Amino acid sequence: MEGGVTKPDKTEFTECWRTSWKKPYIMRLAFSAGIGGLLFGYDTGVISGALLYIRDDFKSVEKHTWLQETIVSTAVAGAIAGAAFGGWMNDKYGRKKSILLADVLFFIGAIIMAASVGPWMIILGRVFVGLGVGMASMTAPLYISEASPARIRGALVSTNGLLITGGQFLAYLINLAFTKAPGTWRWMLGVAAVPALVQFILMLSLPESPRWLYRHDKVKEARVILEKIYPENEVEEEMKALKSSVEAEKADEGSIGNGLFAKLKNIWGNDVVRRGLYAGITVQVAQQFVGINTVMYYSPTIVQQAGFASNKTALALSLITSGLNAVGSVVSMAFVDRFGRRRLMIISMFGIITCLVVLSVLFHEASSHAPRVSGVESVHFGGNATCQGFSRAPQPMSWNCMSCVSSSSQCAFCASGDSKYQPGACLAATDEIRAMCRGEKRTWYTKGCPSKFGFFTVMLLGMYIISYSPGMGTVPWIVNSEIYPLRYRGIGGGIAAVSNWVSNLIVSETFLTLTETLGSAGTFLLFAGFSTIGLIAIYFVVPETKGLQFEEVEKMLEKGFRPRLCCGSNSSSSTEKDDDNLK
């Protein structure tokens, strides 16, 4: 029961199916814990669609960008605290109780959000859900790993990642299903209570992790669980391996020290762990600063900025990006052991940068060619209906749709009745005037403008996800499960995970403000710049860990990593390649 979780190959998936067929209890354990990943993914995806309707119900949210960002990002802030607290609770009270508590937090958060009477209540619910996300994100794969036979552990743990992306896809389906239902966003957010309740009930009948039980001197209980997981002739061997692993772990912890500060001091003075952290933190921060969660949290909003005004249309198109993300997780399983972690990330980053630059160009062209604002069209609805920003502008005749919607949250563009690409009206963004505009069968725009580039923009978003998901979407977590020596794996992975959540918080909290300040084109170009920096950092700091044992990784980091001057793998399990790439 020791070592990191390796990514499964095709043979392991076949063995997983064969073993699970003989021991269905194994799949019950993995599926029950994996619902935590589903909840994690659902919460990530659902807020993007729900936000469209929250803006319609609460005008303060519609008018204040910072409030929209806060609703989205408070869950991320809660996840940071949840991950930190979850680490302590996992060790103190066990994996099972941690998952049960995460379910309670999910359930409470979902109910609070569904019953919200104001934005503050939605934010409170998001904090509870975020705490649950943080705990689930680290506990679910840990429980699956420790309650799985070693030979199929990688395949079973990988299902957690698949359920995360599957949860995101499910969130977009649920969003689309409730677009016409009374309460819209309340149902979207409240549905998360159902799988949380299901997992809570399932987990009550399941045991604690055998490793945790053995670690806390509950040897008989650990043996009972192993007998349900392993064939009878393998139980004794696994008990011996478990004993050896736990004893080695306790000895290592004794040499490191029990206090957090003692461990951190030891890490900083250890060349191997410090270099591992350089690589682990680099890939985790780069994963967020390519801008992925701007797409996952704000995908419908981005689609609206591309020229699709309808909430339902924006959600339907966003479903494509979410589906591609789930497909990309499967692709990663097939290729990460064949091509290697480092190469897959570098290829992924080149694709991401290309897509971001082209997206920036498309948004710039869409803004430049946006329909003009017509004074005649604007006064058509009455002088009081015209947006004050347009009326008071020094040169109103130079305005186009983008000038109108970006000037103030109180301005909106009502497209021409003849063609949405012809000059339209810049009007005050009120419910009454919106009803007047739509009453004439016109389209109402608040976040974007009519654009002939809209279809290409959605295609580029899809290509961006295809580039991201198989590489930067999954590989950083694999690298962090392999890059640290065994005795430092927990604290090293925890530090890297916190850096991921903090970066996530920064990106999600600033995206809408950036689009208002820099425009969509400038924002995506900025992320392209961050991605370029990330690519350079990965090239120079992150070694290849494919096929290496923990001892080989430790040896490689002890000597130091030096990248090759041309393309190719930077490390290998063979001694000859190690000598070429280490210093």
TrEMBL record:
PROSITE patterns: MFS, SUGAR_TRANSPORT_1, SUGAR_TRANSPORT_2
Alphabetical GO biological process terms: myo-inositol transport; transmembrane transport
Entry's family note: Belongs to the major facilitator superfamily. Phosphate:H(+) symporter (TC 2.A.1.9) family. Belongs to the major facilitator superfamily. Sugar transporter (TC 2.A.1.1) family.
Phylogenetic classification of the source organism: Eukaryota, Viridiplantae, Streptophyta, Embryophyta, Tracheophyta
GO MF annotations in UniProt: myo-inositol:proton symporter activity
Transmembrane segments: 29-54, 66-88, 100-117, 123-144, 156-178, 184-206, 314-336, 342-363, 453-479, 521-542
Originating species: Erythranthe guttata (Yellow monkey flower)
Record's subcellular location: Membrane
GO cellular component: membrane; plasma membrane
NCBIfam families reported in the protein's UniProt record: SP
Source species, domain of life: Eukaryota
UniProt-listed InterPro entries: MFS_dom, MFS_sugar_transport-like, MFS_trans_sf, Myo-inositol_Transporter, Sugar/inositol_transpt, Sugar_transporter_CS
Residue ranges occupied by any Major facilitator superfamily (MFS) profile domain in the UniProt entry: 29-546
Topology of the protein relative to the lipid bilayer: Multi-pass membrane protein
A Pfam match: Sugar_tr
Keywords linked to the UniProt accession: Membrane, Symport, Transmembrane, Transmembrane helix, Transport
Gene3D superfamilies: MFS general substrate transporter like domains
Name of the protein in its database record: Major facilitator superfamily (MFS) profile domain-containing protein
